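// run 5 | inverse folding | seed 20
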């Protein structure tokens, strides 16, 4: 039958692209590394160094995701080819919708995997530290900051990434003034670095008795999470450490002991804090990771923009500086000002479906075709 013959041609034309994708993903090297790490994880005393063992296990998970993903795509290609032959032999038109759906799913998955090969930045494969700050506007802006925090944690859950909110400051009446979340997963920083900037919300405010339309802003900082052995040395004399009692929910221990830690970096004025761990030592360790991430992000910013002010990433959380607008009323639209990508599925976006924006950004970055610069 003609339809099955057409899809058979499409699938045969797709096979070279599948093979090229495997090469672009570096699967041979990934399989060798996976074999080596799995052998190491099976050795005696592997768990004696818990931190190192956990990092190796995380890397094994990432490699399995890459290798198994390509095996699954090849398996789906073979199944679809078999479906074509079966449909031709039996002249069963009822198989066409299944074939069409499977082909579209396979090509979409290939496109997503192909985009992952664009993660060529120095820190793209690192985990990520993401900080959200409410802009001016009081309760409305603070509620918007909390909505963004939920959006990113839902995105992490959709991708089976692990995350931990390590610091937060509650809003005056609702929402949050700021929050910092650490997200762990394959190419976490490569995915989320496109989210760095000011995010604008337009909606009818639930906090306005007159139901007037409000515009709110929140800034998102995205920084790579670096290992302790990274080439970023922070000496004790370079920062001031303060301890304080944690705020918010968390039980008696969190609220009654001065386990929360704040670090102030003298040279740049960068301030980081953590209050979610049980011990002061753990909170300090997390603070150092965040400070290291901010210093690297600052270095990249200076290199890219030749900033003269080294007081940290300076984001004007106001009109005209946004990278993306989220309009709830009078119509529904989320639009990225850099790539031009847009969608009317506001509820989906706020529930973590932001891959379209991420992928559009990566494509623009690879081709240099931005809507605005």
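// decoded
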């Amino acid at each position: 039958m003609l339809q099955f013959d057409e899809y058979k041609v499409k699938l045969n034309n797709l096979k070279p692209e599948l093979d090229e994708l495997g090469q672009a993903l570096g699967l041979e090297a990934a399989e060798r590394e996976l074999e080596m790490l799995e052998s190491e994880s099976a050795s005696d005393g592997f768990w004696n160094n818990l931190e190192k063992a956990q990092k190796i296990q995380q890397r094994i998970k990432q490699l399995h995701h890459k290798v198994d993903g390509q095996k699954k795509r090849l398996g789906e290609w073979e199944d679809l080819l078999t479906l074509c032959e079966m449909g031709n032999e039996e002249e069963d038109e009822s198989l066409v919708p299944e074939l069409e759906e499977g082909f579209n799913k396979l090509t979409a998955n290939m496109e997503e995997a192909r985009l992952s090969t664009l993660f060529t930045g120095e820190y793209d494969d690192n985990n990520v530290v993401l900080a959200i700050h409410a802009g001016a506007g009081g309760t409305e802006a603070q509620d918007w900051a909390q909505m963004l925090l939920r959006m990113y944690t839902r995105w992490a859950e959709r991708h089976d990434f692990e995350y931990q909110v390590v610091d937060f400051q509650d809003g005056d009446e609702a929402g949050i003034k700021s929050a910092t979340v650490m997200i762990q997963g394959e190419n976490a920083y490569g995915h989320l670095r496109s989210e760095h900037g000011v995010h604008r919300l337009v909606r009818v405010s639930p906090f306005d008795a007159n139901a007037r339309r409000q515009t709110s802003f929140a800034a998102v900082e995205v920084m790579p999470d670096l290992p302790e052995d990274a080439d970023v040395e922070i000496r004790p004399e370079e920062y001031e450490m303060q301890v304080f009692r944690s705020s918010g929910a968390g039980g008696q221990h969190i609220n009654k002991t001065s386990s929360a830690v704040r670090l102030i970096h003298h040279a740049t004025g960068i301030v980081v804090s953590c209050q979610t761990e049980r011990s002061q030592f753990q909170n300090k360790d997390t603070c150092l990771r965040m400070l290291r991430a901010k210093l690297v992000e600052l270095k990249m910013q200076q290199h890219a923009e030749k900033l003269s002010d080294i007081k940290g990433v300076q984001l004007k959380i106001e009109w005209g500086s946004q990278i993306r607008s989220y309009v709830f009323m009078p119509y529904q639209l989320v639009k990225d000002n850099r790539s031009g990508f847009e969608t009317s599925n506001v509820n989906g976006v706020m529930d973590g479906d932001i891959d379209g924006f991420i992928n559009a950004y990566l494509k623009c970055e690879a081709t240099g075709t931005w809507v605005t610069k």
